[in-house]
Amino acid sequence: MKKKTVNSSRTPVYRDAGFELYDAGTTKDAFARETGNEREPELYIYSRYRNPTVVSAEEEVMKLEESEWALLTQSGMSAIDTAVSVFQKTGITSSWLFFSEIYGGTISYTESILKNRRGIRVSYFNPVNEVYDLDAFAAVLRELRPGLVYIEAISNPMLIVTDLQKVIEMAHSEGAAVIVDNTFATPVLCKPLSFGADIVIHSATKYFSGHGNITAGVMCGNDDSLMKQAVEYRKYVGHMLSPDDAYRLQTQIQSFRLRFEAQCRNAVGISELLVHHPSVEKVWYPGLPGHPSHQTALRLFGNRGFGAMVTFGFGGKSEKERKDRRDSFIKAVSGSIKIIPSLGDPRTIIMPVESVWGAKYPDPGIIRMSPGFEDWQEMKDTISGALDKAL
Ligand SMILES: *Cc1c(COP(=O)(O)O)cnc(C)c1O
């Protein structure tokens, strides 16, 4: 093979859909080797199978999650689809248990795809007073004997932190595999594979890419057998990330840690600002001593932070008053803080909770905020000013 040498320090964007295979013998060889699960094939064949730019971005994720494998996909949802596919075998009829306070898209997926189309028995484990009770979890495990347990490290939008180490231990002792969605916590706060999680997934659309300009997902794991099945699924279903997005992710992920740490710091500042403001009735931030998950967060995350999401609710005597305050806040910040249905962007973005999760959280005074990494003084002035207007 002729080596093309350009002294670039990065893997460039290889946009080839199919790669050159030189002659009939090499082609035959390449396809014979292509079992779909080789880590480093001698030759690339086709970008839906494997692409060098994607592999290079995967290596960045592996460093962060300290995993043996990372598979990039076109979205967080396709990472979830790939991850659960590994546990879906014909003839296995055990039910799957999903912690209930997970990403809305994941709930839609479990309902519409897993339950209604694939006929999987899906159950949900609900928190009580914003805490997932582990004794209740033990009872549910014994009763349902699920084959799979699915949990988010920090829940959405009320930011429940659960003792992952215990959940994983308990699930394993009852024979269930565990998938953790680590999008909100990120490997800066915890690495679920180190607690024995079977698979960790991320929406790389969020903190990993961190600029609101890529839709991507990733699935990490250490178990060769599981991961090889996932490689096969990604290949046959076509969930592979595009080389252009992989290139941008590969670059943007290099600043992930700095960005996330700055966002966590801003989240702490915002949560304190909110707690002390008379127009605000409730603040959900695991860093606050009053948050139901504070102790668990301290235990699980040590001194690494409490995450970069803050949810808060305006007070008021009536629903209308709380709604008016929310709307006045949204209007007051609109020059710099926009309503954008995502998180982890460079700039602070918000979501009115009732507009999205109204069935579960009907209070119209609640806002979910994803702090960016703007200058703190500037951010503080914007938010304080808007809170004063909401009084
Ligand atoms: C956004 C998100 C997803 C889905 O990711 P996409 O990249 O939008 O497909 C899954 N889990 C969590 C926690 C998310 O925030």
Distance separating the two termini: 71 Å
For the record, the CATH architecture of the largest domain stands as: 3-Layer(aba) Sandwich
The proportion of strand residues reads 5-15%
Name the CATH superfamily assignment of the largest domain: Type I PLP-dependent aspartate aminotransferase-like (Major domain)
Give the tally of structural domains: 2
| Arrangement of strands in the largest sheet | 1-7-6-5-4-2-3
The helix tally amounts to 14
Shape: globular
Rg, please? 22 Å
Mean pLDDT: 95
Order of helices and strands: HHEHEHEHEHEHEEHHHEHEHEEHEH
Q: Give the CATH level 1 class of the largest domain.
A: Alpha Beta
Looking at how many chains there are and whether they match, the oligomeric state comes to: single chain
Alpha-beta content class: alpha/beta
Compute the number of strand runs. Answer: 12
The major sheet is characterized as:
7 strands, mixed
Bound molecules: pyridoxal-5'-phosphate
CATH fold-level name of the largest domain: Aspartate Aminotransferase, domain 2
> What proportion of the residues is helical, as a percent range?
40-55%
The stretches of 5 or more residues where confidence is low (pLDDT under 50) are: none
